[in-house]
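Field: COMPLEX_INPUT
Field: COMPONENT_COUNT = two
Field: RESIDUE_TOTAL = 833
Field: MODE = joint
Values follow.
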Amino acid sequence: MPRRPLEGLRVIDMTVVWAGPFGSALLGDMGAEVIRVESLQHWDLNTRGQFFPLETMQKTTGDVDPDAKPWDLSANHNSVGRNKRSVTIDLTRPEGREVFYRLAEKSDIFIENNPTDVIRKLCVGYEILSQRNPRLIMLSMPAFGTTGPYESFRAFGANMEAVVGHTLLRGYPDSDATNNTGVFLADAAGGATGAFALLAALHYRNRTGKGQFIDMSQAENVTHTLSQAFMDYSMNRRVQTTLGNRDPARAPQGVYRCTGEDNWIALSCGSDAEFRGLCNVMGRPELATDERFADGLSRHDNQDALDPEISAWSVGQDYYEAFHALQAVGVACSPVLNSAAVFADAQLQERGVWQRLKHPKAGTHWYLGPIIGHMSKTPLKIWKYASTLGEDNEYVYKEVCGYTDEEYQRFVETQHAGTEIIAKAKAPAAPR
Amino acid sequence: MRVIDLTHYISGPYCTKLLADYGADVIKIERPDGGDPARRLGPFYHDEPNLEGSGTFLHLNTNKRSVTLNLKTEAGRKALLALVRDADILVESFSPHVMPSLGLDYATLAAVNPRLVMTSISNFGQTGPYRDYEMAEVTLYAWGGTMISTGTADREPLKLGLTVEQVYAGMVCATATMGAFLDAAATGEGQHVDLSLQEIIVGNQDRAVQGHMIYQYTGGAQGFAARAGAGSPGRNLLPAGVYPTADGYVQFFTLQPHWERICRMIERPDLVEDEHFTAPENFSGNAEVKAEFDAILLEWLLQRTKREVMEASQAVGYPCGALNTMADVFDDPHLAARGFFAQVDHPYTGTLTYPGPQFRMSETPWRAGRAPLLGEHTREVLHELGYDDEDVTVLRQQGAI
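Field: COMPLEX_OUTPUT
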């Protein structure tokens, strides 16, 4: 095994849904031993959900396990759960909590993003854990942070982004906000910044020996993505609204239809030279000298007149060919891809971002490797498929926590350690 | 930790902002003729274009020092190499051909300082057929497989707000940089980290990765979801999407069977067991029954403000958020109670409100510093490197600073 940046670091991962698991995935990608603490008594469909019937899976792979359980076939989990181990413990019982405390003694980091009251109820807060291990670094990243009036609010990324103002800053300008698609940027942003926070705390611990507690509000974190709108209000008391696909400083900018079903290009011109390039590629050089479009400001003001001209050209173009033709003259352009097209893209293929992997239950598929993988001395990859539920129970109970064979057997009999969820699954409201 | 910052615009500066906000000494190298082009991006303080008045720049460059250096002069290049000697990290966001053409490729920097972590942030990475291609926010989002599912079915796909994906990419870059830094601290050996905005968006945990895995597992080319009709409504009676209220909108979203909670919220406990709504064939995929329930829900929503709806919904444990304007955000009681808003003084703008800590560390608090004036620390930093006043005068005459 080549050198890995976070080799030797042990992370307890009690993250849920999308945000937290992405944070711990970044740590696992860099070589930390990430141990997911899960439960046989609670089937978290937000995390180990998004699974498909066997017949569907069999269309994409010949080696899916016919006895596989749905929680081991979760498309979301099997991707973001890469490079992670899985142990099951029932934290609602005292002996389960003791297992967790022993694990905390042997770990460097504890990352979680549950509502604050859940952590309190399970008695796994920092005050308790730091007594067992003062070097432990704990990150709690619930939706709105661990203090304040909204501390126990339940929120997904879409809900948080509404509250900090993103939802009203996107969408079609001529349309009602009820048409806005739910997006979950807060999840991605929370995971990335959460991992950064933990590494910063690790740097501090390397110098001082001290662990610490990190309180992160995913909503506050994602506010930083709204730079321009936040500062405009701060400086000028202006309330910005959605610009759709437009940009205040670039024109034309938009998304235009191409040949084929639902194929589009996105393009954006930032200078006169780029606009001339666009006009030439479109075979409409006269547009570049049209006084309505002669400079950036005019183009910005008259964009509505330019859109049909661009669409009239693009609608007869193949989206990838148009992309290359415009890039050849220095215009920022891209095809608008669906997931099949993303997988086929030449740049991504050339850079080797996809990795073929056999999961013991789901079979063999291509997975997206670590997105920060191109490190010259410590190249990253998926070191191991996402562990199936409870796959690492023996390792964690016996090797890490030091329980004997007999003691471990007792944890199996009392349904702490296992591989089958006991809880009756509540039907997901909106299965995907 | 000392960081040499050769980034500009959005992603790179946000990456180094994270490092600076939590205590790194970040030295931002700017070109003498106008500095970081983000200084020319609005919004401007009182709407007056000024290199020191760009809100975008002011927010993305807090706690950094600014040094002007013309890297195309030999003297400027020498000063940069002197800075690299004692640095832990160098972050740059030029097109991939620029650093080598300046004689500042990784091999050259590593020869000066083998411990150095060099992070390169570029549109498509340092290699591959698209290496030199251009990027803008709207084209960046198009790569992920997510823009195609954003918007409504009858219209063009939509970008997200502002430059959110570029800021997001900066967060990922900061995490990768810290990982490589900890590795260098442990082994004494730095390295070159090659980060691609395209790859970061393709691996975005906001629907992109999920979509790619759905494609791999099912063969469904679409990935996450097709652009839906109005409101991306749930396929059952549970509200999911944006709904109107008396004074604006709220965003509902849940994946859990929270029927009982939503009935309690609208003060209709009688509906919890009402088979007209709860029978499986009525609860899911029945447009008529859904319209009937939506009418009941809407009547309740339209009698309340968005904040009242959010609070009532949260009181029963149903995920909901009010669609706030930035004015509402500045008035939000929760953000105020947590002291999220930072007051930052600046010589050009005076004191302004900035977004506060991304996270709060019990041992090592966040710093509410300001962005530097263009070249504000040139003399100070050159002095630290051993240049005296006369040397600085010569550098200025040579056009190097």
